[in-house]
Amino acid sequence: MSRLTDPNFWAGKRVLLTGHTGFKGSWAALWLNKMGARVTGYALPPASDPSLHALLNGDGLAESQFGDIRDGEALSTITRKSEPEIILHMAAQPLVRESYATPAETFDVNVMGTVRLLEAARATPSVKAVLVVTTDKVYRNDETGRHFLETDTLGGHDPYSGSKAACEVAVATWRSAFLDERGIRIATARGGNVIGGGDFSADRLVPDVVRAALSGTRLNIRSPMATRPWQHVLDCLNGYFLFAEALYKGASDVDALNFGPSPAEPPIAVRDVANAIQTAMGLAPEWEDVSSLRQPREMQALGLDPALAGKSLAWQARLRQKEAIEWTARWYDGWRRGKAPLELTLDQIEAFTKGY
Predict the structure, then answer these.
(1) What predicted TM-score, i.e. pTM, was given to this entire model?
(2) Largest CA distance in the chain
(3) Any idea where the domains of the chain sit in the sequence?
(4) How much is the pLDDT for 35?
(5) Is domain 7-199+230-264+302-319 in CATH 3.40.50.720, yes or no?
(6) CB atoms within 10 A of CB 183
(7) Quick one: which of 206, 188, 41 has its CA closest to 118?
(8) What are the E-state strand segments in the chain?
(9) What is the distance, to the nearest Å, from the Cα of residue 302 to the centroid of all Cα atoms in its chain?
């Protein structure tokens, strides 16, 4: 089983967390807060209603400031004032379909927003480590179904993927040109398709399943047979935290790591995830295949090889993909039955860290 992040390491650490109002950022803020970190959050207001940030009273988990990562002056100010030792950069335009509608804005947020963060980091003496979260979609995908390694060629068929690949290049440039000489360790984390309770984003499978269930409408699925490296948000965050620890301690010379399920697990198609979520919520699996409708291109096969994360961090997914789906469904089912979101989320963090 994977090594867990060390609460003693994070206790008292000053952390700047961008994107703390998003799905993954909300889970990260709560877990870091629980471990005693002094978190400062910087992000746009939540993009959805409901949002996990609001359901968890996220403003109480961090010194929270709403702002755009493209605002270099505001970003520099909060970085300087919070004096972070570690920066976890999760803020992004994270949606593939949205990137087709707003390609220039997607590149501006994901590339230049990151550049402005790196500029703020190198101007702040307290910063020792920066972890930039990108995506499993940074690789030039040949659709063979093979599991990508960190050394594979970067690319992107859609604006989101391309912007994240470009972000990786920017990080590498700032590392060699500026940050190495300052003694700031910086790396990128490429996480697989993250699922978990509290995601209410547009155009994502699990939130779409939940919205259809709550509204009593039929679920539409764009690519039923597409496969993705599904993993629970806690597994992904555990990897990020372990990586940040290693960077801070100077215990890792790795510049990028994949985080995803074991390649030994058989791939799970989108339709099977939808069926499993519906079944776990006590609903009859029901959806409509809309793949014949004209829509932006999305990759059908995607896989990651996380072996390097295992070798360098002793990390591997603690939850198998089917367990990740079950935990996700359990959260949403509890929420729709009236259980407090904070209790649901803390219960799952506790179960994850105690070996469930």
Answers:
(1) 0.96
(2) 58
(3) 7-199+230-264+302-319
(4) 98
(5) yes
(6) 9
(7) 188
(8) 14-18, 38-43, 63-66, 86-89, 129-133, 147-148, 185-191, 193-195, 219-221, 227-228, 230-232, 256-259, 268-269, 287-289, 303-304
(9) 16
